[in-house]
Design a protein that fits this description.
The structure holds two protein chains of two kinds.
Chain A lengths: L4 E7 L3 E14 L2 E5 L6 E14 L4 E13 L3 E6 L2 E3 L5 H17 L6 H27 L1
Parallel strand pairs in A: 1-6
Antiparallel strand pairs in A: 1-2, 2-3, 2-4, 4-5, 5-6, 5-7
Helix pairs in contact in A: 1-2
Chain B lengths: L1 H57 L16 E7 L9 H18 L3 E7 L1 H10 L2 E6 L8 H16 L5 E9 L5 E9 L22 E3 L2 H75 L1
Parallel strand pairs in B: 1-2, 1-4, 2-3
Antiparallel strand pairs in B: 4-5
Classes of the chains: A alpha+beta, B alpha/beta.
């Protein structure tokens, strides 16, 4: 128990995860970061990408976050995701399709195209795929 | 029998009204369930972001964001969340009363008031009441989305950034249960440490610590606090939508019951009139027979 802390993951639509964990690995805007028990208070923005949670007892679980915030307090870590889903629920085909779509929009760059929106769509699709691949790698190992 | 016929048409029309109100009651009951689900779905996020922001307000940061500094109050902004449609009992009226009462206190201290109206009822109320309406948005529907609200919220936040507002409150109905909705005025800005009323005293340790920020405090707090305000306003709108359906259900239930009572009374009057007419007719016949 001493080596674990409370973690809350919420998205705008629902509470996704709540429980005691040993470690959290998330994609911050300045690079991946890991949080262990006793981390100093921290506030950071998250990039679209996977969040790896290592449960009390060593089991691992993956979540996908499409951007948001992470707050570290001495006894609790809160992740406020714009959308957060369990990685198992991610649909690889849909993510790949979204990536192709975004790439196409990105390359065409027609007059009406909103450049920044296309870029963020692309980043999100790539992040989803990254989460899926990470999950698959883990499953392949195990 | 002229009076009896009149009464019968009246009963007929009340019965029609009763049909409409009971249909509306059932529609409101099913919509209320959906609105409540929507409210419950977004509650965890609103609660957690409130906790995070209350931690920030507790901290002693090197960088003080504008939203965290108390200013002398010269102008107060209210975001008033109302319904788009009527026929929901005293829901909106009670809410407007609460706003005006709160605004009066500030006015007596010499502050001026700005209103932002969400929902068409608030819009039309403040137009006739004469408040200074700076933003309005209506037609949010039963599934309000955050992006519908961003515009009006931004107007108020910009006013706050530029120093035209020194305090920002959101006014909406709180869903206590199906029978009870309570109008509440919540202060959004400046942030006060007791904002996360869910967290207990031992957790709060004001003053002595600060966060590590990534990338830097200004950018981070800017986006986090804007997100916080949006989520609080969104939560207020969703909760108010659930209140609207609940209040409408109760109002329509009362209307249906009242129509039933009215029909009973009128039927009694109708039967009496009919009986009187028959009695009169018999006595006329008897009188006529006796005369012959």
């Amino acid at each position: 128990m001493a080596n674990s802390f409370k973690c809350e993951i919420v998205s705008a639509e629902a509470a996704v995860f709540s429980g005691r964990v040993e470690q959290i690995i998330a994609a911050g805007v300045m690079g991946d970061l890991g949080v262990l028990p006793g981390h100093a208070p921290l506030l950071t923005e998250l990039q679209p990408g996977p969040v790896r949670v290592i449960h009390d007892g060593g089991d691992e679980e993956n979540f996908y976050i499409s951007g948001g915030f992470l707050e570290v307090q001495p006894d609790v870590v809160t992740i406020l995701g714009d959308t957060a889903v369990r990685a198992d629920d991610l649909d690889e085909a849909a993510a790949e399709e979204a990536r192709q779509h975004a790439l196409k929009a990105f390359n065409e760059q027609s007059a009406e195209l909103d450049y920044s929106r296309a870029a963020s769509e692309l980043a999100e699709a790539v992040a989803q795929l990254r989460t899926i691949q990470q999950l698959r790698k883990k499953l392949g190992r195990g | 029998m002229a009076a009896a016929k009149e009464i019968r048409t009246q009963i007929g029309s009340i019965k029609n009204t009763q049909k409409i109100t009971s249909a509306m009651e059932m529609v409101a009951a099913s919509k209320m369930r959906k609105a409540q689900d929507l409210m419950k779905a977004s509650q965890p996020y609103a609660k957690q972001i409130r906790n995070v922001v209350s931690h920030i307000a507790d901290a002693n940061p090197e960088y003080k964001h504008d939203y965290m500094v108390e200013r002398e109050v010269k102008r107060v902004g209210y975001i008033v969340v109302s319904t788009d449609r009527g026929l929901c009992g005293g829901l909106n009226v009670n809410l407007f009363k609460a706003v005006i009462q709160d605004a009066k206190v500030w006015r007596e201290q010499g502050a001026e008031i700005d209103f932002c109206a969400l929902g068409s009822k608030a819009g039309s109320f403040f137009r006739s009441y004469g408040g200074n309406l700076v933003a309005a948005k209506s037609g949010l529907g039963e599934k309000p989305e955050v992006k519908d609200l961003i515009g009006s919220v931004k107007v108020m936040l910009e006013a706050y950034d530029e120093g035209r507002l020194d305090r920002l409150c959101v006014v909406s109905n709180e869903f206590v249960n199906t029978m009870t909705q309570k109008p509440v005025v919540r202060q959004l800005l400046p942030l006060s440490p007791d904002i996360g009323n869910g967290h207990n005293a031992e957790q709060s340790r004001p003053g002595s610590w600060d966060y590590l920020y990534e990338p830097d405090p200004k950018v981070l707090l800017d986006s986090l606090l804007t997100r916080f305000i949006e989520s609080q306003v969104y939560q207020a709108v969703v909760e108010n939508a659930a209140c609207e359906q609940a209040a409408r259900m109760i109002a329509m239930k009362n209307a249906t019951d009242n129509a039933g009572g009215l029909i009973d009374d009128l039927e009694m009057v109708y039967n009496k009139a009919r009986q009187a007419a028959i009695t009169q007719e018999i006595s006329e016949i008897v009188g006529g027979a006796a005369a012959v």
